[in-house]
Amino acid sequence: MTSPLPQDDLRMEHDALGDVAVPAAALYGAHTVRAMANFRVSGVTVADHPELVAALGQVKAAAARANLVCGVLEPDVAHAIRDAAREVARGGHDAQFPVPLVQGGGGTAINMNANEVIANRAAELLGGERGRYDRVHPNDHVNRSQSTNDVFPTAMAIATVTAGRETIAQLAKLEHAFRAKADEVGALQRLGRTCLQDAVPLTVAQTHRAHAHALARTAAALAGALEGLLEVPLGATAIGTGIGAAPGYDEAVLDFLSQEAGLPVRRATDLFDALANLDQYVDVAAQLVRVALVAAKIAADLRFLASGPVGGIGEVRLPSVQVGSSIMPGKVNPVIPELVMQVSYEVRGTATIVESAVAAGELELNIMEPVIARHLLASLRDMGRTAALFAERCVEGISWDAEALEAHLAGSLAGAVDLAAERGYSHVANAG
User: Fold this and answer.
1) Residue from 303, 300, 316 nearest 403 by CA
2) Among residues 165, 137, 184, which one has the least CA distance to residue 226?
3) Domain shared by 167 and 273, yes or no
4) pTM listed for this prediction
5) Which terminal residue of the chain, N or C, has fewer Cβ atoms less than 10 Å from its own Cβ?
6) Among the three residues 95, 119, 144, which one is the final residue of a domain in this structure?
7) 266-267/197-203 β-pairing
8) Do residue 207 and residue 312 come from a single domain?
9) Is 423 among the domain residues?
10) Is the pLDDT of residue 428 over 90?
11) Does residue 397 sit in the same domain as residue 354?
12) Residue 72's domain spans which residues?
């Protein structure tokens, strides 16, 4: 296998397929190097999603502790693995996870990347050298009582919950920005529209409070979907059988995982179902779509109300954050609302990918988890960042043009509605 590094900077490792040249300074090993060559497509690696790296570290730390309690690892080895895994969980070795996230094999290369990194680091903690697995072995020790079948879906679930909770926190900032704007504008009125035609008045505060409520409602639905992922299959090992795990491991490892991850994880009700079916991710993706659609609708409405400013509606003034034209001096575009709208398209695309991957499960295992992880984690991150930008670079700086609002209120049909209630709809319509 070729490498851009000079030969002096390489070490040789051996696996079942032969010799592999590994960068001498790397904590990862042969399996990782092969995967880097086999799956180099998008350039998106496990390292690009620190929450997934952290979750892998948490799973491995919990497993080491459980294996110690079960008496299948020597105390010094178990402690070294635990400590190395915790370093991974804290982000100390993110760069050591260069495996492409989308890959064949149901995440085996990702699990082995973690096993190799932790084995080599644990060996160092015990006074050993990288690349020599006689003291701490990636499979025999770090992966003891585990399979990629249960490790990767557990880590993916924890990473998704972690990323999702951060998204929800950013959405809360956007919700707060709209509530603050509602309090700021007081009793200012605007003309409501239906079918883009003049309707009846409402207050600007009512408009912004509706924005805030819609965001809070959809964020709560997303939070509910994420909670379902806390039921994890760790302990299932191969296809749900628990084969190869030490007696008592399955119960102990979940208690330790709750401690390591700081999440109330619990055992999946049916381990065979948990490995074969990933439909809960469809729910998470769908609820994220709801969030994105609501945010995009709000953004599009503000963009429309800010149109002009002379030849359009011109009721809203958005903050000027970007020069709007390479040829028309002075033009300023509603770039933040347009960003929100475009991110919503990407989120909807992610939902399609997740649905396709979930539908591709076969027999006892769905091995399409990596593509779910890549796109769903990215969409959760992007939606959170977008919400924060929408709040900070748009909503907080919005102002309403009182003169334009007053002029447009002349189109209100409120008087006609009141008169129709008094004299009848047909009487007022015919009189008009």
Assistant:
1) 316
2) 165
3) yes
4) 0.95
5) C
6) 144
7) unpaired
8) yes
9) no
10) no
11) yes
12) 13-144
Tell me which of 123, 144, 165 is where a domain ends. 144
Whether residue 426 is contained in a domain is answered as: no
Q: Do 217 and 185 share a structural domain?
A: yes
Instruction: Report yes or no on 257 lying in a domain.
Output: no
One domain, residues 71 and 218: no
Residues 6+ apart with CB under 8 A from 342: none
Specify whether 161 is located in the same domain as 124. Answer: no
- The encoded tokens of residue 140 equal 């025999």
Concerning whether 379 is annotated as a catalytic residue, the answer is: no
pLDDT tens-digit readout, 215-256: 999 999 999 999 999 999 999 999 999 999 999 999 999 999
* Domains identified in the chain, total number: 2
State how far the Cα of 417 lies from the Cα of 422, in Å rounded to an integer.
9
Please check whether residue 281 lies inside any domain of the structure. yes
Give yes or no: residues 344 and 323 share one domain: yes
Cα distances (angstroms) measured from residue 395 to each of 319, 328, 336: 8, 26, 10
Phi-psi region of 328 (alpha: psi -120 to 50; beta: other; left: phi over 0): beta
What's the per-residue H, E or C state across the chain?
CCCCCCHHHEEEEEECCEEEEEECCCCCCHHHHHHHHHCCCCCCEHHHCHHHHHHHHHHHHHHHHHHHHCCCCCHHHHHHHHHHHHHHHCCCCHHHCCCECCCCCCCHHHHHHHHHHHHHHHHHHCCCCCCCCCCCCHHHHHCCCCCHHHHHHHHHHHHHHHHHHHHHHHHHHHHHHHHHHHHHHCCCEEEEEECCEEEEEEEHHHHHHHHHHHHHHHHHHHHHHHHHHHEECCCCCHHHCCCCCCCCHHHHHHHHHHHHHCCCCEECCCHHHHHHCCCHHHHHHHHHHHHHHHHHHHHHHHHHHCCCCCCCCCCEECCCCCECCCCCCCCECCHHHHHHHHHHHHHHHHHHHHHHHHHCCECCECCCHHHHHHHHHHHHHHHHHHHHHHHHHCHHHCEECHHHHHHHHHHCCHHHHHHHHHHCHHHHHHHC
Catalytic residue among 42, 320, 325, 356: 325
Contact 346, 382 (CB under 8 A): yes
Q: List, for residues 367-393, the tens digit of each pLDDT value.
A: 999 999 999 999 999 999 999 999 999
User: Among positive and negative, which fits the CA dihedral 99, 104, 107, 108?
Assistant: negative
